[in-house]
Fold this protein.
Amino acid sequence: MNAAARLDATFAALADPTRRAILARLATGEATVTELTAPFQLSQPAISKHLKVLERAGLISRGRDATRRPCRIEAAALGEASAYLERYRRLWAERFTRLDAVLDELKAHDPATRSPKKAVKR
Amino acid sequence: MNETTLEVPPGQPTLKITRWFDAPQHLVWKAVTTPALVQRWWAPPCVELLSCEMDVRVGGAWRFLTRSPQGEVGFRGEYREIAPPHRIVQTFIFEPIPDSVAIETMTLIADGARTQLVVDVVHPSVAARDAHVASGMETGMRQAHAQLEAIVQELQRAAA
């Protein structure tokens, strides 16, 4: 496969949410098809099909053990998997930045937290 | 800006999110338990929160319905513990994967004028946790793909 075709295969593989979830799972350690099937509402053949797409894109490899054939994430794809976690963290960080704005408004109207400059000493 | 930290212990079906807020505990409690306020911070700007139902009492239900260009997606659960102004335990279900029920515990730790918010999430399995992380960032990923597509189209036009 040439570089452009490989890139196409990688993006096509990553465009599917189930395959991204499979990759996120494999980022924590190798797993068999059976183990990968459990969390998804999909049949084992459907999961196997996704695994073939991931394997063709070079994102995962399969073990040689004929009965188990455990799947593992490829080193190059690990960077992508840690990017998943960073994007998830950012989702929360951005949510909390919006919460900051709501809290600023609540503070401005709360007698206990209103700016001390406005407090008048009698 | 206060930092948001995410801990994802390998091999355990849990994740923890921690963040400090420069506001007292009672106001943070109000902001996370009042639907009209949650409506303003929960969903990213590219996602419309169509409804934000919160029956904040033990046994009460919550449901958030979102709409993005990709369609409508719901999130729901039930309140298991409500201890104002510092602790909420609730179930969390991403409706496309309804059998995967996570338990979320939100704790607000008061420290004078500041409050530390901690969300502990326990998923039924490590795989379910990872699927949740992957689905959580899906919107951003889809946006990235749409942008990439636009760039590719532009390059194709330039080459034509």
